[in-house]
Write a structure and sequence with these properties.
Strand order of the largest sheet of chain B: 1-2-3-4
Number of helices of chain B: 3
Number of domains of chain B: 1
CATH superfamily of chain B: Ubiquitin Conjugating Enzyme
Radius of gyration of chain A: 33 Å
Bound molecules: zinc ion
Shape of chain B: globular
CATH topology of chain B: Ubiquitin Conjugating Enzyme
CATH architecture of chain B: Roll
Number of strands of chain B: 4
Shape of chain A: elongated
Helix content of chain B: 10-25%
Number of strands of chain A: 12
CATH class of chain B: Alpha Beta
Structural class of chain A: mainly alpha
Oligomer: heterodimer
Chain lengths: 576, 149
């Protein structure tokens, strides 16, 4: 058993995880101008060999790094403007971290910009705590002689406790951070970070800081929080909005979540953001479709299966139970004798127009449903991913206990599942993309790529669902998996929605002979497992290749404006 | 906070009774101080000269951090920023509230808002607003017409 070469090709294969190690924790340290709105950034690509046309550069940042960026920006601007960091921070927040614009505007009118931002630069006028004799706080009416008071540089004075209550309310209740103003009515002076720090309790300060950080990322066009629940990472990606018509900027967070930097939705390659929006809207408006279906289908009186009327004739025959009935009155056809017009509610003349319109909308609907069904099918299959993953986990256990394969050596199954699911998501979005393509020779090329990937995916799926010869999955399952988990209980989308006429991919080879599990000599088992492993790796590699080909070509086509679209990109209205 | 609430409102009541600003009279303050009625008189030489109006103030325990709910009762002044249900479109009552504002300063603002009107009329969206508004004006998201009138 030669384990080493298995390891190698498994490891080399793993380009997905490389993002993690390469995009690591290196906070920018190469000068001042590599962060902030609109300036020249250091390259953010994880240095992979060659970037594929559909890939974008991005970087994952921890909260600490974001804090460091922010601090660095503040220090930089404070240096240029010659002011305290807390004032630079307030100014930057006012300018949504657009450093260039801030500096430009500030140089023109320092007082005006400071005032607008609620900042007073005069070092003599910093927020001061003091015990003031004979002072009565205008808010709480307290006048204790030893009461500590605070006045911002506007010199509106209040007691410290009132400020603490006020800041608690603003931060904890209202979620404010950036623009908390002096308590005096109409005063625009902003309570800066240093002052907040001195007044509030540690837990409120922590909340305040995290709110500030949120706004920092929210304000920056090049940063986005990972939308995964409870994820603390932010992604940096420099993609201009007009590029979103050419590429789907899929980024992968350190937490594993893959999402589109353009719209924040989960990865939707190769369908560009705007089409995704139109498509999802179309699907949401589907109630329209549902109405049509309910108006144009009826239930068989006998077996209750749904029957769609697809011609002018009212003589309906249920495909399932062969019950014959009249579409108009739903009565049994036998009551109508031999003449269908016994049912006089059907006025052919009046219905010609109606049927015409119906035919048209029916055509549009059928077109939509064609794409929608395939889209929904891949979505459904991907939703069953957890099931496939669990089944695969059982298989991996079984493989380990039946053969001499190590934990690392059985990882190929897991990896194959990941590749399968990723490709299913891609396929899903190819259908919404194709829905918006106008029919020309280019579309045919797209559909070829789509079909190739689909075949590859279904073949891999089938292979992963197949029991492993000589490996008793059930017995392993009993000890490792929760009781309700019945291995191979039912099929995870075994190619439903895929044309059955599809031919096998050229590289498909026949499987090892299925040998009865109990009488199989272990040498044979080892052999068949090694065989299976090779097949899975081959098919997985093929799926990856097909996916790359499809994504690369689609993106290139977008860049070259090769795809004819049947939709107005501004309104989302389909052309006829 | 309820300590501040009591102390602050007790003092406000005392001050208003001892030195009421011109045209502002506390009609009634509940024992728990949570609800007040204040009468304001239209200033001399304005459209509302000689008229009196009743304001209702309701305070939460979080006063003065939180603004009071202020509405006109009974005889609602006809004014471009006052709806016929008594709701008042005035920013300091909502998002521009400051804990340093008082009942007295709110009344004075409302009085001055009345004074600056050049025509007695309802807000243009009055009919729509009163149909959809909640009982408390604080539940409304206000877009302030303009600060001057
Ligand atoms: Zn106080
Ligand atoms: Zn102030
Ligand atoms: Zn994440
Ligand atoms: Zn997107
Ligand atoms: Zn039937
Ligand atoms: Zn009939």
């Amino acid at each position: 058993m030669s384990a080493m070469d298995y390891d190698d090709d498994y490891m080399d294969d793993d380009d997905v995880d490389e993002y993690d190690s390469d995009t690591g924790m290196d906070v920018d340290d190469d000068g001042e101008d590599d962060y902030g709105a609109g300036d020249g950034f250091a390259p953010v690509v994880a240095d992979r060999d060659v970037k594929k046309p559909y890939e974008v550069d991005f970087k994952v940042h921890s909260t600490d790094e974001i804090v460091a960026f922010q601090t660095k920006e503040v220090a930089h601007v404070a240096g240029i403007l010659g002011c305290l960091p807390e004032h630079a921070a307030t100014l930057l927040r006012t300018f949504k971290w657009n450093k260039e614009r801030l500096i430009e505007r500030y140089m023109e009118d320092p007082e005006g910009e400071s005032e607008k931002a609620g900042v007073v630069m005069d070092a003599q006028k910093q927020a001061k705590f003091a015990i003031v004799k004979g002072f009565e706080c205008p808010i709480c009416c307290n006048d204790d002689a030893d009461m500590e008071t605070l006045a911002l540089h506007c010199e509106h004075r209040f007691c410290r406790d009132c400020y603490a209550h006020y800041l608690n309310e603003k931060v904890a209740e209202q979620g404010e951070s950036r623009r908390i103003q002096c308590m005096s009515a109409g005063c625009k002076v902003v309570v800066d970070e240093i002052t907040v720090e001195k007044v509030v309790a540690p837990e409120i300060l922590a909340k305040y800081r995290s709110l500030l950080l949120r706004t920092y990322v929210d304000d920056s066009v090049h940063l986005k929080w990972c939308p995964a629940p409870d994820c603390v990472y932010a992604i940096e990606c420099h993609i201009a909005s007009n590029q979103l018509l050419e590429v789907v900027p899929t980024v992968r967070c350190k937490c594993g979540h893959q999402f589109c930097f353009g719209c924040g939705l989960p990865d939707h390659q190769p369908c560009i953001c705007v089409l995704v929006r139109f498509w999802l809207k179309k699907c949401a408006d589907d109630s329209e479709t549902a109405n049509w279906i309910s108006a144009n289908t009826k239930e068989c009186m006998k077996c209750m299966s749904t029957i769609e009327k697809n011609g002018g004739c009212n003589h309906m025959t249920c495909k399932k139970c062969k019950h014959e009935f009249c579409w108009v009155c739903l009565g049994p056809w036998s009551d109508h004798g031999t003449a269908w017009y016994n049912c006089n509610r059907f006025d052919e003349k009046a219905s010609i127009d109606a049927r015409d319109t119906q035919a048209k909308s029916r055509q549009a609907l059928e077109r939509y449903l064609h794409y929608y069904n395939r889209y929904a099918n891949h979505e459904q299959s991907a939703k069953l991913s957890s099931e496939l993953l669990e089944k695969t986990a059982i298989k991996m256990e079984a493989l380990q206990s039946t053969s001499t394969l190590s934990w690392i050596e059985v990882q190929f199954l897991r990896k194959a599942c990941d590749v399968l699911l990723e490709s299913r998501m891609t396929l899903k979005w190819t259908y919404s993309f194709a829905y918006f393509l106008s029919r020309d020779n280019m579309t045919a090329l797209f559909e070829d790529n789509q079909r190739d990937l689909e075949m590859a995916v279904e073949n891999l799926n089938e292979l992963l669902e197949r029991p492993i010869p000589g490996v008793d999955v059930a017995s392993t399952a009993a000890t490792t998996i929760t009781p309700q988990q019945q291995p191979s209980h039912h099929h995870v989308n075994n190619g439903a929605g895929t044309p059955t006429s599809m031919s096998k991919e050229p590289s498909a080879t026949s499987l090892p002979p299925l040998t009865p599990s109990h009488s199989t000599p272990s040498v044979l088992v080892e052999d068949s497992i090694r065989d299976l492993r090779q097949q899975v790796l081959d098919k997985m590699g093929y799926v990856k290749t097909r996916r790359e080909v499809l994504l690369s070509d689609t993106t290139q086509g977008l860049r070259e404006h090769r795809w004819g679209m049947n939709v107005d990109m501004k309104t989302g209205i389909l052309f006829d | 906070m309820s300590n501040i609430f009591t102390k602050r409102l007790t003092k406000e009541l005392r001050d208003l009774q001892a030195n009421p600003p011109a045209g502002i009279v506390v009609d009634k303050a509940d024992d728990d101080l949570k609800s007040w009625k204040v009468v304001i008189r239209g200033a001399e030489g304005t459209l509302y000269d000689g008229e009196t109006f009743k304001l209702q103030f309701k305070f939460s325990n979080n006063y003065p951090l939180e603004s009071p709910e202020v509405i006109f009762l009974d005889n609602i002044p006809i004014h471009p920023h006052i709806y016929s249900n008594g709701h008042i479109c005035l920013s300091i009552l909502y998002d521009q509230w400051s804990p340093a504002l008082t009942i007295s300063s709110v009344c004075l603002s409302i009085q001055s808002m009345l004074s600056s009107a050049v025509k007695k009329e309802r807000p243009p969206d009055n009919a729509m607003y009163i149909l959809t508004a909640k009982k408390s004006p604080k539940a409304t998201t206000w877009a302030f017409h303009d600060d001057k009138v």
